[in-house]
Design goal:
380 residues; alpha+beta; Peroxisomal Thiolase, Chain A, domain 1; 2 domains; nine-stranded mixed β-sheet; two-stranded antiparallel sheet; 12 helices
């Protein structure tokens, strides 16, 4: 089999950085009042800035597919004509602009200069970006593709706006109940961000500068054991199952904000680190590796709250991962879902700090129904 290398990484961030104080100027005030949970959530998640594909007046500036296409174009910025050589476009998101056509097809539609190309669209949430990457990796390894692009993008700001919850608030007012959003809906409004990232995967490393050899990519789902923890386009019933938006009368979809993104915070705290990192230890043992072999550890975090949880898990298992090995950009970019790991690796790859022989570990937990992806890279 061929080897497979990440030879270039690019990202695209829409508009200007949005500070914590500005968030409700973009997303709006629920029932005209500041959020009760915003300060608590921001204090715990540690995020100071994020990006939105919209303006303060609500005007949308980019679709999800447009942002993904801009990230892909960034891979070929030095020689735009080279995009004609792209032979795979593997695109992931948890927030496509439409149910059909596929997200990947829509991204390809913004790349007319690329010509006809194989397109695939892995679905999911945070792990979807890694699934898109693994598909590109496998096809290059098999010798079927020579210039494969994997990309991941999110545009969730539009479902976080106050207008999305107005019908539910009005229903609560009619019932004389407190017209504030439940915490499971308000929680994620202060964590999510928009943007896109892309990898170029090739069978040979760069002749100049560095590349990242893809040693392995491993994943695992616990959906057979655990109920949904984060969901959208559905509501959770008393027995823990999900009721699809397709099964609601049209008027109830708005009344219950069914298309809002929701998080079972209690289930998240109990399970997200314990399940995934136990599996990670199994994978490392199988590979005959330890954290001592890792130079840089890049965990996708939805909140800095979980950094200490991972650290505690490592220490309880006799593993010491000093802070200088950790890297995350959550504080400045927010949680960009499937695209977060692309943006983190882009900053490390283009930092000028990497040295040949160093190893980079990527860890991507997904709370939706507890899935995990891990990847080891070697700087060459």
């Amino acid at each position: 089999m061929s080897e497979a290398y990440i030879t270039r990484i690019a990202k695209f961030l829409p508009n200007e950085s949005v500070s914590n104080d500005e968030m409700e100027e973009y997303l709006g005030f629920i029932n005209g009042k500041p959020s009760k949970s915003k300060a608590i959530v921001l204090r715990n998640n540690g995020i100071k800035a994020r990006y939105y594909a919209l303006r303060k007046d609500g005007t949308l500036t980019h679709t999800n597919a447009e942002m993904a296409a801009e990230a892909v174009k960034g891979l070929f910025a030095k020689n735009p004509a080279e995009i004609e050589e792209m032979d795979l476009l593997s695109c992931a998101t948890s927030s496509p602009d439409q149910l059909m056509p596929s997200h990947g097809s829509m991204v390809h539609g913004y790349l007319p200069e690329s010509g006809p190309v194989e397109v695939v669209s892995p679905s999911g949430v945070c792990c979807a970006g890694m699934h898109a990457f693994k598909y590109a990796y496998m096809l290059v390894k098999l010798g079927e593709k020579e210039k494969a692009v994997a990309c991941a993008s999110e545009r969730l700001s539009t479902v976080l706006r106050a207008s999305q919850f107005e019908e539910e608030v009005q229903q609560l007012l009619k019932l004389e109940q407190n017209p504030y959003l439940s915490f499971e809906k308000d929680f994620l409004r202060w964590m999510l961000s928009d943007g896109a990232g892309a990898f170029l995967v090739e069978p040979n490393p760069n002749s100049e500068g560095i590349s990242l050899k893809i040693d392995w990519i491993e994943g695992c789902s616990y959906a057979n054991e655990e109920e949904a923890c984060m969901y959208m386009g559905a509501d959770k019933t008393a027995d823990g199952s999900l009721k699809s938006y397709k099964d609601y009368p049209a008027e109830e979809i708005n009344d219950h904000s069914v298309f809002s993104i929701k998080q079972d915070v209690k289930l998240l705290g109990e399970k997200i680190v314990k399940l995934g990192f136990a599996k990670f230890l199994e994978i490392m043992n199988k590979k005959g590796m330890s954290m001592d072999d890792v130079t840089y550890f890049l965990p996708h975090l939805s909140s800095y709250f979980f950094e200490s949880k991972i650290e505690t898990f490592f220490k309880e298992n006799g593993i010491d991962v000093p802070k200088h090995k950790w890297y995350t950009n959550l504080v400045t970019k927010g949680n960009v879902g499937a695209a977060s790991i692309y943006m983190m690796l882009e900053e490390v790859f283009n930092s000028g700090a990497l040295k040949k022989g160093e190893k980079i570990l990527l860890a991507v937990p997904e709370s939706s129904r507890f899935s995990y992806m891990f990847c080891m890279l070697t700087v060459v």
